[in-house]
Amino acid sequence: MNTSAPSDWLLYCRPGxxxxxxxxxxxxxxxxQPNSGFIIVRGKLRVPFAQxxxxxxxxxxxxxxxxxxxxDRLTPLLAALPDAPTAFSDLWLEVPDTxxxxxxxxxxxxxxxxxxxxxxxxxxxxxxSPAPRLHIFFPDKTRALIGISDLxxxxxxxxxxxxxxxxxxxxSRSTLKLAEAFETLLSEEERKQWLRSGMTAVDLxxxxxxxxxxxxxxxxxxxxxxxxxxxxxxALHPMVQHLRQDGFRYQPRRPVDWVVCDMVEQPSxxxxxxxxxxxxxxxxxxLFNLKLPMKKRLEALEQAFDDIxxxxxxxxxxxxxxxxxxxxxxEEVTVLLTKIKKR
Length: 343
Known about the structure:
- The strands form two sheets. Strands 2-3-1-4-7-6-5 form a seven-stranded mixed beta sheet.
- Helix content is 27%, strand content 26%.
- The chain has helices at 18-25, 74-80, 99-102, 105-121, 175-185, 188-194, 210-217, 267-279, 297-314, and strands spanning 7-12, 28-31, 38-43, 57-65, 90-94, 133-140, 143-149, 200-204, 221-225, 240-243, 256-261, 283-291, 319-324, 332-339.
- It is of the alpha/beta class and 343 residues long.
- The longest helix is centred in the C-terminal third of the chain and has 18 residues, at 297-314.
- It is elongated, with a radius of gyration of 22 Å.
């Protein structure tokens, strides 16, 4: 995808975070209605998708169809499709992640079959190819925004949302946050290498055990640190040691592979704590949530990142820092900080 020329970009985000999503791009805002779940910005978006914290998906807009007639939406949509690229690897019909958007899901499912059939007939839809993906986004039934995404630089799920089922025996829904974080922030190879049976982890602020459950399911032995009680299968699990201690003061007797943290605290304090675990060598990898303030979210996030970078650089440690506001997050973002081993 050529990003050298200014373009219009469609970005999906969590409803209520449109302003934050627009701010981190630094581009001209074309459309950003509060609680709409999407924005449109214009300019040269050189930042890779993986580095956008608040964007669930990024799509380069190529055309639009407005005032769609109720009886025949197919004809104007086909006419609005771009001439290039000549073929697409997939077709995603998408709607805002809002209550209003959900009312359109039935319409898009029925319409998808019709549009797919026409694209197959004209050989413009070639599944399992490396061609760009075609997105048709319906803010409502009368308007469609048409764009394309690069398979290597975009989210791999429709609407940028990884759908996960709640495990029956997990103690809390927070387990879905860590499951999504593993899928989103780690590569397949990293999951294989870093989440192996016999590895060790510390879960700070573990109760009631949602994140601990996720670690145990990957075969890790977990020290669950929390003054509160563990629940369900995590209360007496043989791979879990429950330690009723303060998560900000606890230190393991020996280094561990992972430390994870979902404590409710100021983002700067949590970020500094996690950086100390990595800088001191107490852990190799960490995943943690930063609870953001209602105002100046991006500013608070950048301050937390600066604190992390300063600690890593002072300790002369090579590291990788990545963050995303996941679908299962709320007023927070999930951060990965991992030490890069010397070759």
